[in-house]
Each structure stands twice: as structure tokens, then as C-alpha cells.
């Protein structure tokens, strides 16, 4: 048997230090998971079908878990598949990694896709479309394309992300075609631990500020913003309705809490449920929940259509889901935001924000700029945040 799932004496820092492109790394404040090598890959555009074949694949291979990604677009016409890997070795360790910061080379070219003014125009179009198409919310994103004169140092980026965002979920996953997805997201689509399912939708954002007075004021403005409360409520309604059929009880707080990442203030609502059927796996639940209105909109199909009309790129795995599922059905799936897709010497960063009727184009642009900071800070490129 090839599979090693070792109670490893390695620390989370050791696991992050061992990460190499092609591996899967998932670190949280509580633990780190490093999966290396490939026994089998499973590729499937229908996420529910993907979820249904994984238990059989794990039983057949004797592997303890599968790791991977779901794309943003899981609709019936998608060309981008869910991509799961049954790894050869799995190492887990308790705690968050602590490592020295690594210095990275600077890119030789940077391009915003679309340009900032085009993004603001798209926000205006989205606001108009919300009214004419009876949508409650749509999430619009933009991208930053970076080119380097040598291979992108994915390993250093991932380690800096983990060190800079120790309370969140830092991830690195292999994508089809030898590309990699790396990021550090605060948002957990869901965790399944036995019969307990936990989801922490985030929606509603304000940039952090280096000035403590402005920073606090931004947080207060978010807490009291009716526009952001609405943006948030749309997500919670959806997640509760999506989880309800699977749960015999659900605990939903009356209102959101204010939380931070190093770059952003957010509204978040932690939701806990007890599963009615213990055979429903973490990946079944991820397939049922994704895409939430936190990253797509409401109603889902119409919002996705509008997003695809207004964004001049394919989201691919940005705003998808990234995580793992084990043979018992437990697992964790994070919302794949604050991320970049890395090819050989180039990478694309993505950032988006929810658009509701009261959205202001300049504020939406500023929000995406702040969201790019998660990646840019890890790359020592804070100065690029204004692009
Ligand atoms: C879409 C992104 O983030 C999502 C959108 C949010 C918002 O609109 O307020 C907040 C958190 C995330 O669910 C992103 O970071 O790219």
C-alpha cells in the first residue's frame, strides 16, 4: 500500500516548508494538511457526480482522503471541471505555521483586466441589470495579470500567505494543465465533522486602513451599512435554504458579526447544523452549497449569466471551492477567493465584490483593490494595490 497518512512529528511550519508546486497544502489556525503525489485524479464537470464517485475511489485505493478544487462555474454548460486528486502521501500537523518571510522577485509586467474604469462601468451595468432582470445581487470581479522573467515562486507565495494570514485558510492546489491555485481566504464554505456541519459565509466588506482611526471608522461604517446588511442577508438566506434539507437542526445567529482579515473588514454569520443523514459527505455538501451568493449572486443562474456577460475573462477556479474530503465523509471546503492562478512565468490575481442596487462604482473598485492586497502583500508588492 502506497498511502501514508502519518501522525507526523512535523510542525505546520515544516509542512509549509515542504510544499512544492503540484502538492496540495491547506493550513488553518488549528492545523496544516500537506498532500503529495498522485494515485489517481478524478475530473468531472458535475460536482454532485464528482462527490458521488469519491467514496468509491477512496475505498478502492485505500487512500485516507481526496483533495482538490471545484471551479466557479458548475452550471450545465461549464467547460471547467472539478478536479480531485487522491494523493500518495498525507501529512497533518496541529497548529498554524510560523516561518520567516521570503523575498520574491518583482514582476516585469502588470496589467489590470479590465481596466479600473472599465470595472466601474461594469458595476454601473450590473446595477442597471439588477433592476431590469429582477436580480437581488450579482458579484463582479476583476483580475491583475502579472508576468515574471522566471518561473513564479509559488512556494514562497504560499508560505508568505500562511504566515501573513494565520487565522484564515491558506491553500495551494494543483489545477488541470499543470497550473496552481494559491490563496488565503477567510471564508469557509463548510466543514463537516461527523454529524456537525459548519459554514461561515462572509459578505459585506470595507477596506482596512493603516490609520487606526480610519480603520475603526471603516469597521463601524460596515456594521451599520444597510447596503452591506442586505448583501449579507441574501447570502445567509441562500446558505440556510441550501443546508436545511440536509440538517435536522440548524443554528443561525440573528445577525452577522464584524470580523477582519489583514486587508478587509467583513460581515460574517457562523452557521452550525446537525446532519440528518451521516452518509452525506463534506463534498456532497460543497456541491449542494456552491456557488453561494457571496461569490455569484441571486438567483444563481441569472446572476452567473450576468457575471459571464460583464466580466471579460473566465473565472476558472477563482470563486470556486478548495478543500479535502476523507473516507469517513469529513472535510473542509473553503471559498477560493483572495487567490491567484499560477502558470509558468505568469499569474492572474482575482478580486470581486457583491453588487446590489445601492452599490457605488468607486467604492466597489476600492473594495477589489483592497482584496488584491492579500496576494500582493504576500508577494511584497503592496505598492501595486492601486493598479
Ligand atoms: C468575491 C470576493 O469576496 C466575496 C465577496 C464579499 C463582498 O462582496 O463583500 C465578501 C466576501 C466574499 O464572500 C473576493 O474576495 O474576490
TrEMBL record:
Cell inner membrane found in the keyword field: no
Keywords: Isomerase
Domain Chorismate-utilising enzyme C-terminal: 117-371
Protein name stated in the entry: isochorismate synthase
Stored NCBIfam families: isochor_syn
Enzyme class per UniProt: isomerase
Source organism superkingdom: Bacteria
Molecular function GO labels: isochorismate synthase activity
GO biological process assignments: salicylic acid biosynthetic process
Catalytic activities: chorismate = isochorismate
Family stated for the protein in its record: Belongs to the isochorismate synthase family.
Protein EC: 5.4.4.2
Amino acid at each position: 500500500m502506497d498511502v501514508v497518512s502519518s501522525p507526523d512529528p512535523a510542525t505546520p511550519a515544516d509542512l509549509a516548508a515542504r510544499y512544492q508546486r503540484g502538492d496540495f497544502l491547506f493550513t488553518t489556525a488549528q492545523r496544516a494538511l500537506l498532500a503529495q503525489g498522485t494515485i489517481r485524479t478524478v475530473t468531472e464537470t458535475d460536482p454532485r457526480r464528482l462527490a458521488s464517485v469519491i467514496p468509491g475511489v477512496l475505498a478502492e485505493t485505500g487512500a485516507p482522503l481526496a483533495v482538490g478544487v471545484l471551479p466557479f462555474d458548475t452550471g450545465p454548460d461549464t467547460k471547467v471541471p472539478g478536479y480531485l486528486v487522491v494523493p500518495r502521501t498525507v501529512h497533518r500537523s496541529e497548529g498554524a505555521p510560523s516561518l520567516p518571510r521570503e523575498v520574491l522577485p518583482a514582476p516585469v509586467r502588470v496589467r489590470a483586466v479590465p481596466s479600473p474604469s472599465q470595472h466601474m462601468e461594469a458595476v454601473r451595468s450590473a446595477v442597471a441589470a439588477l433592476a431590469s432582470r429582477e436580480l437581488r445581487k450579482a458579484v463582479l470581479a476583476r483580475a491583475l495579470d502579472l508576468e515574471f522573467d522566471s518561473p513564479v515562486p509559488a512556494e514562497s507565495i504560499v508560505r508568505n500567505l500562511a504566515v501573513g494570514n494565520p487565522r484564515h485558510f491558506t491553500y495551494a492546489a494543483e489545477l488541470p494543465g499543470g497550473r496552481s491555485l494559491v490563496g488565503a481566504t477567510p471564508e469557509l464554505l463548510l466543514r463537516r465533522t461527523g454529524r456537525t456541519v459548519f459554514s461561515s459565509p462572509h459578505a459585506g466588506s470595507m477596506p482596512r486602513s493603516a490609520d487606526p482611526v480610519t480603520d475603526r471608522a471603516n469597521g463601524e461604517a460596515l456594521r451599520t451599512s444597510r447596503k452591506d446588511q442586505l448583501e449579507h442577508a441574501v447570502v445567509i438566506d441562500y446558505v440556510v435554504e441550501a443546508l436545511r434539507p440536509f440538517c435536522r437542526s440548524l443554528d443561525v445567529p440573528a445577525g452577522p458579526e464584524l470580523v477582519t482579515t489583514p486587508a478587509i473588514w467583513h460581515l460574517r454569520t457562523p452557521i452550525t447544523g446537525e446532519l440528518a443523514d451521516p452518509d452525506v459527505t463534506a463534498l456532497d455538501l460543497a456541491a449542494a452549497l456552491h456557488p453561494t451568493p457571496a461569490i455569484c449572486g441571486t438567483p444563481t443562474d441569472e446572476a452567473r449569466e450576468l457575471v459571464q456577460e460583464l466580466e471579460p475573462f473566465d473565472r476558472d477556479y477563482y470563486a470556486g471551492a478548495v478543500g479535502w474530503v476523507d473516507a469517513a465523509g469529513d472535510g473542509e471546503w473553503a471559498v477560493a477567493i483572495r487567490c491567484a492562478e499560477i502558470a509558468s512565468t505568469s499569474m492572474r490575481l482575482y478580486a470581486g465584490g457583491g453588487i446590489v442596487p445601492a452599490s457605488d462604482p468607486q467604492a466597489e473598485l476600492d473594495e477589489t483593490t483592497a482584496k488584491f492586497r492579500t496576494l500582493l502583500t504576500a508577494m511584497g508588492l503592496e505598492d501595486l494595490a492601486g493598479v
